[in-house]
Protein: Histidine kinase
Organism: Jiulongibacter sediminis
Amino acid sequence: MGSKKAYWIYQIVGWSVYFLSDLANNLAFLTFNFDEFNRIIGSIVVNVAAGVAMTHIFRVIFKRYHWIKLPVTQLVLRSIGVVGLITFVLAAINIPIGSEFINTEKMNWAIRDISYIINYGKPVLIWVLIYVFYAYATERRNAEVERVKLEASMKETEAKVLRAQMNPHFVFNALNSIRALITEDPKKASNGITQLSNLLRSSLITHRRTTVSLKEELKTIEDYLSLEKIRYEDRLQSKFDIAPNTLSIQVPPMMLQTLVENAIKHGVQKALRWGFIEIKTLIENNHLAIIIRNTGQLEDNKNKRNSTGFGIENTKRRLHLLYGNRFKFNIHQEDKLTVRAEIWIPLDQPKES
């Protein structure tokens, strides 16, 4: 049932029940005979119509002029004024009608009028209170829904920005390395162009996908390392120890590429002779564990604002956006010349999107 249809049903039924119960409560005062039954039904119809019409006008004004946005004091004062106005109108309608059916000689006119005001003020007050509280609750619920939508939108925007942050210097260096190979080793240069195009394609895909399979991510890493090996040649060595049952697990796209890029830039690149990168995956305690070891030394605290720190913070934010507090990320100095990074991702995670 739609909200508008329900509103009108509640309006008509509510006012009808009230006036019928009011009629039953005043049977002792009635002087009519059965020939006047139609007139009594007519008076009930008039009362129901008046109650529905007056409260509906209040509802229209309340919504059109956004009374729910008013300060509490103004809202209370205006609501009291509305209750008084509607009560006065209903009493004014019913005093002449009631005098035809009720023996007014049994009561003082002042008492009669006050009783009418009290009698019709109660349902109007209850109606206004219910409506205002309902409107307030609806406003709060809608505001909460909008807040959640806004947060989700902001998170998605942030995630897209973080996924898109591929280091442009790497692209320029890769192009320069490929250019140098064109005359020396055309076949190797051709392979380099293919690998670079694959890497750029993967970077573009990250705008549209929240996660990719670990197999796809490792292919991106292989292309990336192949391009870097054009620059570093034998100075860069890599090793993969991948558990087959981990290949289909979803991971954030380009996440490992960011960590591997940092490992090369701040580890292998600074090594005097050669450097290595090892990537290992396994499933343990219902988590995917990704372990990256590389030649290098962690920067001290005063240098954490450099690109190494940025890459790590980028990774942490992306993991938090996807998994909340259910992931683990740790990076530490394993020994004097080796840095070890560990990522633990829950297996009950968001599906590929």
